[in-house]
Amino acid sequence: MNYDKDVMNRLKRLEGQVRGVIKMMEEDKDCRDVVTQLSAVRSATDRTIGLIVAKNLERCIVAANEEGTSAEEAIQEAVSMLVKSR
């Protein structure tokens, strides 16, 4: 699967956030601040997962329509991926 620039940019921002958390920990910052930042990382990760699954589902549905097959399996797989990500 080709990942577009939006997804890659999100992951690069996530990488920066994680590096920031590591720096905070190295500087012995307050645990509440560290946890707040980790929560932001988790939220951004969840949104990125949703975007990836949505884009993949969109492609699968288009392919199913072009092939004249049902998109139901692709939808079920997408839901399963989202459930597993939680």
TrEMBL record:
GO molecular function, one term: metal ion binding
Membrane spanning stretches: none
Top-level lineage group: Bacteria
One GO biological process term: negative regulation of DNA-templated transcription
Xref: CDD domains: BsYrkD-like_DUF156
Pfam families in alphabetical order: Trns_repr_metal (PF02583)
PANTHER family in UniProt: TRANSCRIPTIONAL REPRESSOR FRMR, TRANSCRIPTIONAL REPRESSOR FRMR-RELATED
Protein's recorded name: Metal-sensitive transcriptional regulator
